[in-house]
Inverse folding.
């Protein structure tokens, strides 16, 4: 924290920030063309529990020296006010764990070391035993103890002790806040965990917020818990979670400190980025660059603007090969998983006559439609009908016949099933 490094023409300084992980830093990069500040993930928190508070004095000093560009977190730009402190969550967890009539389970992001420490302290204050379940939890606790962020003498049991302890003495700290199907909480909710069994009257605290896209998986876990008459507590019920990202009030404070000439909102969905951009303009920033994934931005010398595009997106590992999410094989496999595949062998004479019924092989399709007509029969009839509908002279074009048969079969299957399978045609002319 506060360290400086010189990398070629770049003077790089790390500045202490608050977040939900230990040792977050902003990066100030000074070059002959000007200075850029990249905040990383941050918030304003006077009591972050595992790190120093945001270094307001250094940020103000950078603003006084003159900041050209601010690249800043936008995740909570649509929310008013200032985020509560991590210390406030610790108070709430302490109270809830002390009040719980039976077992209480807490699930959170394993990387939030401060939250893990708060749960451990609450268990100790309530005279309860801490049980940890989930490999990610074990790894983080071990690393945090080794580096001094958690008490090295912190005592906890592994999941095998869960059944042996009295119900009213158990605090379970477990993985699964995002509904991950193999995480400890999901397996316990479904009754599949070999060591952890939750019962009616137990409490489960989701000390987290659902990441967009995980709503269904989290909902499944919550519904399974509700079916067991387990009490569920979320941040909608009590202050059991705070975000590690700045709301509008914190963004306004940062802009007053650093006074950038140019702002580049980053980290967030489009609505967060746009809300941040509008806020920066309202606060008097002269130039706001509305960049999205893949945009290449020239920051300095001014004028700052989008100058190019670069490849972005997910990469899939296919065996030993990496390929993009839009690559042909990936798209084809998605289609195969949805509608299966049909392979057709058609044999024609040189005069364009069918020499035998088409051979059909299928995978991933139902055996028959609602009228109990087999899809193999539907595909074969479609292939024969398509070939016979093509004028004899045009049947001498193998590419034309193959494509016509492919389209004909997919259309016939779609009419009977409502889905279009992948279809490949092998045409032989004798």
């Amino acid at each position: 924290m506060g360290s400086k490094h010189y990398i070629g023409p770049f003077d790089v300084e790390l500045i202490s920030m608050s977040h939900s992980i230990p040792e977050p830093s902003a990066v100030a990069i000074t070059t002959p063309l000007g200075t850029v500040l990249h905040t990383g993930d941050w918030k304003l928190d006077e009591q972050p529990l595992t790190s120093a508070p945001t270094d307001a004095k250094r940020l103000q000093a950078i603003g006084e020296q003159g900041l050209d560009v601010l690249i800043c977190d936008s995740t909570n730009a649509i929310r008013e006010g200032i985020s509560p402190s991590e210390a406030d969550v610790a108070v709430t967890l302490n109270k809830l764990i002390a009040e719980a009539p039976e077992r209480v389970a807490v699930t959170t992001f394993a990387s939030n070391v401060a939250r893990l420490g708060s749960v451990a302290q609450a268990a100790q204050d309530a005279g309860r035993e801490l049980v940890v379940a989930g490999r990610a939890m074990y790894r983080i606790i071990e690393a945090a103890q080794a580096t001094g962020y958690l008490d090295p003498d912190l005592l906890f049991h592994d999941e095998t002790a869960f059944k042996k302890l009295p119900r009213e003495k158990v605090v379970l700290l477990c993985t699964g806040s995002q509904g991950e199907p193999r995480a400890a909480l999901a397996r316990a909710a479904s009754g599949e965990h070999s060591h952890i069994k939750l019962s009616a009257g137990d409490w489960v605290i989701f000390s987290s917020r659902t990441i967009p896209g995980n709503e269904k998986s989290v909902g499944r876990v919550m519904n399974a818990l509700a079916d067991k008459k387990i009490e569920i507590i979320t941040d909608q019920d009590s202050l059991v979670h705070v975000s590690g990202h700045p709301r509008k009030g914190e963004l306004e404070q940062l802009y007053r400190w650093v006074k950038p000439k140019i702002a580049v909102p980053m980290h967030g969905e489009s609505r967060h980025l746009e809300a941040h951009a509008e806020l920066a303009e309202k606060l008097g920033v002269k130039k706001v660059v509305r960049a999205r994934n893949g945009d290449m931005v020239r920051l300095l010398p001014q004028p700052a603007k989008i100058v190019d595009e670069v490849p972005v997106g997910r990469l899939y590992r296919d065996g030993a090969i990496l390929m993009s999410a839009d690559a042909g094989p990936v798209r084809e496999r998605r289609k195969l998983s949805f509608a299966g595949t049909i392979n057709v062998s058609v044999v024609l004479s040189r005069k364009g006559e069918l020499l035998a019924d088409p051979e059909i092989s299928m995978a991933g399709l139902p055996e028959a439609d609602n009228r109990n007509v087999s899809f193999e029969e539907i595909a074969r009839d479609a292939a024969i009908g398509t070939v016979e509908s093509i004028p004899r002279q045009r049947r001498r074009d193998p590419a034309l016949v193959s494509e016509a048969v492919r389209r004909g079969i997919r259309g016939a299957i779609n009419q009977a099933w409502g889905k279009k399978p992948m279809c490949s045609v092998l045409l032989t002319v004798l």
Summary: The domain at 325-429 is CATH 3.10.20.580 (Ubiquitin-like (UB roll)). The chain has a mean pLDDT of 93. The first strand starts at residue 4 and ends at 7. The chain has three domains: 4-81+244-309, 86-233, 325-429.
